[in-house]
Amino acid sequence: MDYLSHNVAVNLKQIRQSKGMSLGEVAEQTGVSKSMLAQIEKGTANPSLGVLGKITSGLRIEFQTLIDPPREDFCLVNPKEIIPTKELEGQYKVWTCFPYEDSHSVEVYRIDIEPGGVYMSGSHGEKTREYITVTEGVLMIECHGHTQTINKDQVYKFETDQAHIYRNEGAEMVSCTCFFLDYTGLR
């Protein structure tokens, strides 16, 4: 299930239950079939914008309410159990642990780089900063004309408003966790 389908599934069920409505009552009020609503709540349907429009209109809610990330009081992510966001065989794997859409200011990634592997990342835009901690191996990062070696258990920060390169020049796998901060609206 993709990110938006998950959000819609969780939010629709929560909204329906908070209004004390059955699937049949929501179907009556929205004009969307009970079976389609059940599939949406299970995350097995990929509803069109028209269907989502009927739901928001019928339930008298904002569209954003349906697609926003649902509140999570806690969440455990095991990157090895999710599909990599980016992958180049023999070079690297990148997992998005917590996407930007969750908070609109922070992203968390896990990156594994094979021995001799290189991962090139584009700019993340103005006023973005990366905090990175290496959990295995030794990582080299090139950005702003500067090269930094980061050893296991060290933490490094740098501005990510331009392209940057992650290199594994060692003989063992490099694993790191990256935290991207968009501080556009922060003081």
Explain what this protein looks like in three dimensions:
With 187 residues, the chain is an alpha+beta fold. The protein folds into two domains: 3-67, Orthogonal Bundle (434 Repressor (Amino-terminal Domain)); 86-182, Sandwich (Jelly Rolls). Helices cover 28% and strands 32% of the residues. The protein is built from six helices and ten strands. The protein has helices at 3-18, 23-30, 34-42, 49-59, 63-67, 100-103; strands at residues 86-88, 92-98, 106-113, 118-121, 128-136, 139-143, 146-150, 155-159, 164-167, 174-182. A six-stranded antiparallel beta sheet has the order 1-2-3-10-5-8. A four-stranded antiparallel beta sheet has the order 4-9-6-7, with no helix packed on it. Strand 6 and strand 7 form a beta hairpin. Helix 2 crosses helix 3 (34-42).
Quick take:
With 187 residues, this protein is of the alpha+beta class.
